[in-house]
Each structure stands twice: as C-alpha cells, then as structure tokens.
Amino acid sequence: MNQKIKNIFVAGAISPAFIGEKISAHQSKTGIGGHSIFLGQVRADTVGNKQIIAVDYTSYEPMALELMTAIRETMIEKYSLTCMHVYHSLGRIRSGEICLFVFTSAPHRKAAIDACSETVERLKAELPIWGKEIFEDDSFQWKINQPA
C-alpha cells in the first residue's frame, strides 16, 4: 500500500459542524471542479410493531482500516480524484443523526459522483462494520445492509 492508513472512525454521531469544516477546508484547492457528498443517516424504521431509536455501531477496526485504505487508493486512481474523505461513526447513533460521511473531490463532477457512489457501496459490502438496531423497548436486532 502506498497510502498510510487513515482512521475513518468517529466516536458518536457526525455533526453538521464537522461536515461543514471538512467542506470549507477545500475552498483553497482550486483544481477541484466537483465534489460529491454522501451522508448516511440512521432511520427510525418500524420492524413488526417496534420502532428503531438508534443503531449501535461496532467494527473490527484494524481490518476495516486496512480495507478502507485499499478502497481509497483504488478510487483515487480509478477516478483521478483530487481527494477523498470517509468517516464512519462508532457507538450509539440516534435516529436522525449522521453515521456515515463520504466526500470525494475531482477536477470534474462525474468522477466525484461516481467515486462517491462506488465507495459507499464497497464500504457497506466489504468493511467489517456492524450495526445493532436498538428498539424503543431496549431490545435489538443486528442490522442487515440493504443493496442500493
């Protein structure tokens, strides 16, 4: 691997202020023509007769970080990205809060959009990150990632 391993994990929800800071830090990068952003938010789904109030995320971090580094390298090369940032929450994230932030930048919008979409799909399919859906009565079930 050519890139150093970056920690993508954030304790707790990803705040709007954090997202705004990351976006505004790119204003000086004048070779960028397009950004694409994906924000994953915890849904308050109803399963049976119970509503999900939170998701408790855990991960096998060493493996997830190594795999994410490889995905990142592939996406940067494949789409000629200027930069790419990925952040995923760990811990209990309440319904309505942001748990995933993927931010890609490239000289042209199509590359940024395609890279962002592919990164989200690969992350959900390949990284050892698990979510325990917590219901209002404190019971739970393990989350199953749904295809796009």
What report would you give on this structure?
This protein is an alpha+beta fold and 148 residues long. It has a single domain (9-22, 31-142), classed as Molybdopterin biosynthesis MoaE subunit (Aldehyde Oxidoreductase, domain 3), CATH 3.90.1170.40. Helices cover 31% and strands 36% of the residues. It is built from 3 helices and 8 strands; from the N terminus they run E-H-E-E-E-H-E-E-H-E-E. The protein has helices at residues 16-24, 61-79, 109-126, and strands at 9-11, 34-41, 46-47, 50-59, 83-94, 98-106, 129-135, 140-142. Strands 1, 2, 3, 4, 5, 6, 7 and 8 form an 8-stranded mixed β-sheet that branches. A hairpin with a 3-residue loop joins strand 5 (83-94) and strand 6 (98-106). It is elongated and about 50 Å long. The model has no long low-confidence stretch (mean pLDDT 94).
Rg over C-alpha atoms, rounded to the nearest angstrom: 16 Å
Distance between the termini: 29 Å
Quote the average pLDDT: 94
The chain-level structural class is alpha+beta
Q: How many individual domains? A: 1
SS field, number of helical segments? 3
CATH architecture: Alpha-Beta Complex
Query: What overall geometry do the principal axes of the alpha carbons give?
Result: elongated
Corresponding CATH superfamily: Molybdopterin biosynthesis MoaE subunit
Q: What's the main sheet like?
A: 8 strands, mixed
Number of strands: 8
Unreliable parts: none
What is the fold-level CATH name, i.e. the topology? Aldehyde Oxidoreductase, domain 3
CATH class assignment: Alpha Beta
Q: In sequence order, what are the helices and strands, one letter per element?
A: EHEEEHEEHEE
How much beta, percentage-wise? 35-45%
Helix content range of the residues, please?
A: 25-40%
